[in-house]
Structure formats: C-alpha cells, structure tokens
Amino acid sequence: MELEEIDRKILNVLVDDSRLSLRQIAAKIGVSVATVMHHIDKLEKESIVKNYTARLNYEKIGYDIEVIIEVRISKGRLLDVEKKIAVHPNVFAVYDVTGAFDAIILARFKTRRQMDNFLKKIQTYEFVERTETKLVLQTIKEDNIKVE
What we know:
The chain has helices at 5-16, 22-29, 33-45, 78-86, 112-123, and strands at 65-73, 91-96, 103-109, 128-135. By secondary structure, it is an alpha+beta fold. The chain has two domains: 5-45, Arc Repressor Mutant, subunit A; 58-135, Lrp/AsnC effector binding domain/regulation of amino acid metabolism (RAM) domain (Alpha-Beta Plaits, 2-Layer Sandwich), CATH 3.30.70. Helix 1 (5-16) crosses helix 2 (22-29) and helix 2 crosses helix 3 (33-45). The protein is elongated and about 55 Å long.
C-alpha cells in the first residue's frame, strides 16, 4: 500500500504517543477528527497499525536478563521450530536470518536459572543443531522509527 502524506503524519504521531485521542492527533497534524479516524481505520485494516501498547522498562520490573539466541536448525524444519520457540512467554521476537545461523530469538528473563532452563529446553528440540547465546549488557537504543 502506498502511504499518503497524511498517513505518514498520523503514523509518526502514533509512534511518539499512541495514547493521544483522535482530537489531539487531528490538532497536531492540522486535519479534522473525521479525517484522522478514516485514515487510522484504513491503516488498521491494512495491518500497518497492528496494535497499541505500552513500552515497558523491563529492567525496573525484574527482567534483568536479556539475551539474543542464535539457532541453527536442520532438515528444513525452520518454521516448525520457530513456532515452537515463539510461544514461550519470555520470548519477545523470533527472526529468520541469513548467515551461519537460521533464526535469532530475543528473550527476557528474571533469573539466570530461568534463562538456563529455557536454553536447555530448546537445545533438546528435534532439529535444533546448535545455539549460541549472547547476553545484552546495555541497550543503547530501542525505538520505533519515523516513517518518511
């Protein structure tokens, strides 16, 4: 779908603060509330805007351990293994990638023991050949990008 200029403006306002009312969004970009409502409905129907959510500071609520897990998967079973891993409650992203590994898993844990149990569990999955885990020491930037 080709975005109109008004769509880009609305998306950028939502990226900054998705809690704004339609009236506040309309005032920020200089259009009517009805126009904003129409465009947001269209963006939602096209799955460009998928949900509205809070961004949490996980460290402040005890999820001090964030890891990047690279996984090598054999015998063309990539999607099956990824779907199995993706349902774990500590996993917040699963990506197909190119390179030495087939998938990258991002996950957060409260304790090292939780992380260790998770790693040992996925290493027992059929078709998982190898994993390599990286501990995130500090997040410098994690943000949505603006739409141009």
